[in-house]
Every structure is written in structure tokens, then in C-alpha cells.
Amino acid sequence: MTSVLATGLGMISPLGADCKTSFAAALAGQSAIRRASAELSAGLPDLLMAPAAAEPLPLLESGYAGSDRAAQFALAAAQEAMADAGISQAPADAGRFGVFVGVGFGGAHTLDAMYARYCATLGGDENNRRRAAVVHPLSVPRMMANAPGALISLRYGLRGMGNTYSVACASSAIAAGEAMRAIRHGYLDAALVVGTEAMLTPGSMVAWNALRVMARVHAVDPAASCRPFDRARSGFVLGEGAAALVLESRVRAERRGARARAELAGYGASADAGHLTQPAQAGQAAAMRQALAQADMEPGQIQYVNAHGTATEVGDVVESQAIAEVFGSASRQLAVSSTKAVHGHLIGAAGALELALAIMALESGSIPPTAHLLDPDPRCTLDYVPLEARHGCRIEAVMSNSFAFGGSNACLIARRAEP
Fold it and tell me: Which of 7-16, 206-215, 217-226, 285-294 has the lowest mean pLDDT?
């Protein structure tokens, strides 16, 4: 089986409009979390959000103005990743170049706006009520989950196999893993992997708030409200944005003289089959062990884990215990951090974003901190890189964890690409 190289990265996140800016903010522990606007909070007090640092549409051609916000984010991240990889529109081997997208709830902005208009119009006079059912004819294509993938495929003329994965918080991690498998087993020579999410809408905020997993506003500083692994943690903050990776077979990358940013070496996926919202240590450990086995690596060969680290009461403890179980004595030399403390939880985009940040840590030797970690939960016993980044680290391989509601677990391993 051929090895799979990451040759391009792209990102538009709460931390920045591109990879470089986003990674610098993550290293600085610079939080993008803030109080939600009155329009978003829908009458609920003290809601938080992590909005994208830039609007996606100005980064794109004007023809995408009618697309859903999630699709616009996806296109912006894909654009940077393709440019970073040095790949132009309609490559010669487009039939062997696929698009793999992860999204938790694509089309949220389109759907929310449609229902808001419908309800407002339905409550008017007779003429307004007749117009209540009149919506934009492209409403369905705009809000369908595979819209971002379809638009990216059209934009770059990519005709290879691909798919859209909607697996809650594990969506884009699974998209990356399945793209890697397709290249490894010879179905494709290259793939553009994108994770995207745009759920900062009144309807989404109300729904997530009802789950009781959202962080409470910090009494002193709202930006410090998401506190993974801290004794005072209270949940996560919903974010928006997208991240993208270009994956290629080693043969293809070498043939065109591409720079390899990393090798995507391992992928593991499992199901807890236990509870719809409660995580399970055994399922998470199984995904990590699969990824290590596929990469033919021992736990001690991993220096950094970008944890799922949602800052929920149960989730952080279970993940800590799963990592400790898999890594054993090697966990004493392992650095673990959750960047969600500063960029929030991007749900479907989280896996791709955090994998890209982990790859940049691998390249630079700088490990992002777990921001706001002042008082570690004694049940979480690992080294969580509290408060400040570490620089000049020897990093040969990294792991990125993504664990979703529904009990879906995904783990990815990237390592330095051999020349």
C-alpha cells in the first residue's frame, strides 16, 4: 500500500482567516470566545460563541453569494489548501482526485432563515399567508449536507470518488481517514478533505443549550469560559469555520515535486454502542489502538495528542482515562492539549481543524497549550500543556482525537514524511 502525504493545508477559523494566523493564535492561547449576540441568543441569557475571524464570502468569487455559510467556509479553506499544495483547477488526473467532506449539520443558516421567514409570513394577513410557502427554488440544494462537497468538486473539476460524512463531532476526522484509505488502497491518487460547520444560528443555539453541554460564562472573562481538563470546566462553546487538507499518494506527490507537510499514517474508528451522548473509554481506546496498529507504531513514538477535550464533566475524564490506558507508561512523556479552549467546538469541522493544527505543531516543534487550565481535575492525570505553549520540542508523530455523540470515535496519526 502506498503512503499518503498531506501536501496542503487550509483554514478559516475563529482564530484567523488562514492557517498561519490561526496557528499563531492557538500557540498564544488567544481565545476567540465571546458572548453571543442578542440575535443569536434567542432570549436565553449568557450564551457564548466563537465566530469565525473573517467573513468567507470576500475571499471567494462573487458567484458563491447565494450558497449557505457552511459551503462558503468550505470553499475558502479548500482554496487555501489547494494553493498551498500548488494544485490548480482541473488537474490532469481529475478522475483520480476525490473530495471528502465532514459536516455535522450543513445548511443551518439556510434552514433557520427559511423557517424564520415562514413563521413571520404565516402570522400576517391573508396575502402574506399565501406567500408563506414561497421559498427560494434552490433552498434544498443550498442546505443539503453534500452541498459543500458538490461545490468544491465543481470549482476544481474533481471527478474522483468521494463522499460527505455527517457523524457529529467526528465528521471530518472520518472524512480524512476514509480519504486516506481510498488513496492507500488505490482507488484514488489524491483527495481534498474538508471539514466545515456554520451553526451559529438562533435555532442551533437553542437546541445545543437544551443539551446542557454548553459552557457557562466565566465570571471575570467570557473569553476564558471554555476550560478543558480544569476542575471548574462547565462545557464547550459552539464555533464556526472550516479546515482543509490535500492528501496525495507518495508517488503522485513525488512525481510533481510537491512538498510533504506530513504523512497521514494511521486511522482508527470505532463505535461505543453504549449511549447516545455519554462517551465510553473502551470505544475511544479502540480507535486509538487501531490508528497505532495501522501506522505500525508504538505509543511511545507519539509525542503530542490534540485531544477531543470538550471541557464537559464526563468527556474530559473518559478521554484522559482512555489515553492513559492506551499509552501506559509512555503517557508520562506525552504532551496532550485541547485547542477548543480558544477556538471553540466546530462540530463537523473540528476533526480537520485539529488535525491541521497538530500537523503544524509537528512541523514547527511548538505545541499549543490548553488555555485557561488553572486547576486541573485530579481525575485527569496527563500533561495537558497548561496555559503556555512549548517550543523547540522534538516531535516525530502526533495524534488527533475526535469523539462524537452517538458513540462514534475517530483517531488520526500524522508523522514526519520521510524524504
Answer: 206-215
Question: Quick check: is 345 catalytic?
Answer: yes
Query: Which segments within 198-329 are labelled E, that is strand?
Result: 241-249, 262-271, 304-306
DSSP 8-state code for residue 265: E
Dump pLDDT digits (tens) for 55-93: 999 999 889 999 999 999 999 999 999 999 999 888 999
Catalytic residue from among 169, 226, 380, 411 = 169
SS (H, E, C) 36-55: CCHHHHCCCCCCEEECCCCC
Q: How many residues does the chain have?
A: 419
Three cell numbers, residue 351: 476533526
Report if residue 252 sits inside a domain: yes
Quick check: is 132 in a domain?
A: no
Which of 345, 372, 380, 411 is flagged as catalytic? 345
Domain residues for the domain of 62 are 4-107+144-415
Name residue, grid cell 443549550: 209
Strands 241-249 and 4-12: antiparallel
Domain count along the chain: 1
CB 106 within 8 A of CB 71: yes
pTM above 0.90, yes or no: yes
Is 342 within 8 Å of 32 (Cβ atoms)? yes
The answer to whether residue 343 is catalytic is no
CB 319 within 8 A of CB 367: no
pLDDT, residue 49, reads 97
Residue 40 lies in a domain: yes
Is 109 considered catalytic here?
Answer: no
Q: Which residues pair with 164 in a beta bridge?
A: 101
Which residue do the cell numbers 474508528 mark?
269
Gap between the Cα atoms of 68 and 64, Å rounded: 9
Q: Considering the domain boundaries, does residue 334 fall inside one?
A: yes
The three-class DSSP label of residue 101 is: strand
Q: Which of 19, 109, 226, 308 is catalytic?
A: 308
CATH at 335: 3.40.47.10
The region, left, alpha or beta by phi > 0 then psi within -120 to 50, assigned to residue 168 is: left
